[in-house]
Model the fold of this input.
Amino acid sequence: MSGTLYLCATPIGNLEDITLRVLRLLREADLIAAEDTRHTRKLLNHFQITTPLTSYHEHNSRAKGTHLINLLQAGKSIALVTDAGMPAISDPGADIVLLCHQHGIHVTCAPGASAHSAALAVSGFGSGRFTFEGFVPRDAKQRRERLASLAAETRTSIFYEAPHRLRDTVAEIAGQLAPHRNIAVISELTKLYEKTYIGKIADIAGDVANMVPRGEFVIIVEGVSEADILAGERAEFKNITAADHVELYISTGLDAKAAMKAAAKDRGVSKSAIYNELQRAKENV
Done:
């Protein structure tokens, strides 16, 4: 009978954030697979855990993945951990999870600390709908395109970023998005020197440009409001006359009455205002 792969969340900073269940699983597992064995060894030593440890990361995931699958098929239990937070989230652990599903091996999760959800809570931004983007692309062109795609994103967007790329990323955000939108830049979550920079994009970009980034960062970008989107659309409609706007809808098959109603909605005015403008246009012909 196959064993089980346990996805064990580890602290993102403060060691007290580890759960009792994760501690038990790390002690009871036949093997712990870790992203960085040196980092995980410090955690295990702190809690006096002596379970055998092996490496599993993006550079050896193919060969080591096959080895781990063989162990699991032989009935061994394996606890998978990443350096911080939940394995398989922006992490090569997702590869071994997929292999387990393909081989009919049971996978379960021992949840705990997660940087993106913690940062979202700290930001106070809308959490009803959000998108987790992971790390921003390193390539400048790809980074620009990814961030530009947020111009009309109504959901809160969450990114991870390394300290040496933070300034470039926040500067790009400031260049691509409306300066009055809100952003939060959070460093060293749960650690002694945790710091949150929160405010308008234009202001925070200036703060970040003058800092010396240290530690890992989470960037939270507030979604654009429906009112801003509507205002942008209405601004575009101001470039055409009401008559042309109505004719645009008529060309799609709407009758004159329905076309006036649709144009009025687009322009944020009453249908009678559209009618009056059409009448004035006729008088001036």
